[in-house]
Design a protein that fits this description.
One of its GO terms (molecular function) is carboxylic ester hydrolase activity. InterPro entries: HOTDOG_ACOT, HotDog_dom_sf, Thioestr_dom. With about 425 residues, this protein is an alpha+beta fold. It contains nine helices and 14 strands. The protein has a ten-stranded antiparallel beta sheet with strand order 1-3-4-5-2-10-13-12-11-9. Strands 6-7 form a two-stranded antiparallel ribbon. A two-stranded parallel ribbon has the order 8-14. The longest helix is centred in the middle third of the chain and has 23 residues.
Length: about 425
């Protein structure tokens, strides 16, 4: 059962008290539109695209409010940033259309957008300055560390509750842990857990800026804070061992070699020589180059964030939808998202950009499909393409899927074998986590 795939992370008892309330109305809780309105107010963002340049110019004056040292900022507690937000799909039926998919469940891409907005607001809550209605900080999403789901289907006619707080703080970065729950029979049950990393920058979003330190209270919060430190070290280790920096391990080289041998054509050439050129596809397998989809997105002003770049949640939604379509076409059945991990926001996407998305099935095992989506912006003037994001999605198909096979050894096929190993690593990390 997919429900065993995740367990609720422990929250400090003070934070978790409200999770047990079974009331469906909860009219006192803000909704997602309130979250985005509050973000615009905190930053002073203009709702009119024509005024965005002036609005950003006005933010320059907030430089004087930046702290020179982290020690100059008052420490915060976890409960200081704790927020609960309602998504009233059950009590406000008119909202469902935006979130509904053809399978009569909730569009997960929309949930990614909501998590991104909520994570930023949580960080602004952590760093808010008394008597200062506008924040001098530009807080942006740096990394989606992981999102693990424990429900295959999110119902479109039941209220959803998001909760979250800052769980770890560095000098200029913050880890945010969020949980999503859905109302069933009067109680909220867990749907997913998410860990995002946000970074703070100056008012013009050019240089790092200090954020308030976090002081854990009690053993539960100390354990959560310690987990944040371990997450940081794990990310450093994973990045250090990246196939872009280090050669595959001996075990991984053997895996690729075995795949290569299994794809050699059996016919002989001359006296007992096996052809290295002629390749055959093993039974119940698909070549990697036949397991990909591409998409193009024009980035309109409607999709801008409060800093007039393209909203990170929108990028995640588009990447997820392409990833889902890639998994769906590969497995020939409906895929369910199991996990999202290691989404690094490498560079911002400007309004007006041409966004190129490429989805690739890079690893499969039984009924699991690991999909990598590569996002890059295309400059029509220079005809150059620059990577903005790499997305990793783990899907579970309704049926067992064919094995994806790279054509290995030489030329462009060597890249496919590296993608295969990278996908295998991400899949192993996800399975270990859940």
């Amino acid at each position: 059962s997919a429900c065993r795939l995740c367990t609720m992370r422990k929250l400090p008892s003070l934070l978790a008290r409200t999770l047990n309330s079974g009331t469906s109305g909860t009219p006192e809780l803000p909704d997602m539109s309130d979250v985005r309105t509050r973000l615009r107010d905190i930053v002073g963002a203009s709702t009119n695209w024509r005024d965005h340049v002036q609005a950003m110019q006005e933010r320059k004056a907030l430089h004087t409010l930046l702290a020179k040292r982290q020690e100059d900022l008052p420490p915060r507690r976890m409960k200081d940033s704790y927020l609960e937000v309602i998504l009233p799909l059950g009590s406000q039926p008119e909202l469902r259309e935006k979130y509904l998919n053809v399978h009569n469940s909730v569009r997960f891409g929309r949930i990614l957008e909501d998590l991104d907005s909520l994570g930023v607001l949580i960080c602004y809550t952590h760093t808010k300055q008394e008597m200062q209605p506008r924040s001098p900080l530009s807080i942006v999403t740096a990394l989606v560390d992981k999102i693990n789901l424990c429900k295959k289907v999110i119902h479109p006619d039941c209220d959803i509750k998001f909760t979250g707080n800052v769980s770890w703080v560095g000098k200029t970065s913050m880890e945010v842990r969020m949980h999503m729950l859905q109302l069933h029979d009067g109680d909220y049950s867990p749907v997913l857990d998410a860990t995002f990393v946000m970074v703070a920058r100056d008012p013009e979003n050019k240089r790092p800026a200090f954020v308030n330190p976090l002081v854990p209270e009690g053993p539960e919060e100390e354990e959560i804070f310690k987990k944040g430190e371990l997450n940081k070290l794990r990310r450093i280790d994973f990045n250090t061992a990246s196939l872009l920096k280090m050669a595959p391990t001996a075990e991984e080289r053997n895996i690729i070699h075995d795949i290569f041998l299994n794809t050699l054509e059996a016919r002989q050439e001359g006296e007992g020589t096996v052809s290295f050129r002629s390749r055959k596809l093993p039974a119940n397998s698909v070549w990697m180059e036949d397991a990909k989809l591409k998409a193009l997105q024009i980035c309109h002003p409607q999709e801008r964030n409060i800093f007039n770049r393209i909203f990170g949640g929108f990028l995640m939604r588009k990447a997820f939808e392409l990833g889902w379509a890639t998994a769906c076409s590969y497995g020939s059945s409906r895929p369910f998202i199991v996990s999202v991990d290691d989404i690094m926001f490498q560079r911002p996407v400007e309004v007006g950009s041409l966004l190129l998305l490429s989805g690739q099935v890079c690893y499969t095992e039984k009924n699991y499909i690991q999909v990598r989506v590569h996002s890059e912006v295309y400059d029509a003037d220079t005809r150059e393409q620059d990577t903005t994001n790499i997305f990793h999605f783990t899907f579970m198909s309704e049926n067992e899927v064919p094995r994806v096979v790279p054509k290995t050894y030489g030329g462009k096929y060597l890249i496919k074998s590296m993608l295969y190993l990278d996908g295998k690593r991400h899949f192993a990390a996800v399975m270990k986590e859940i």
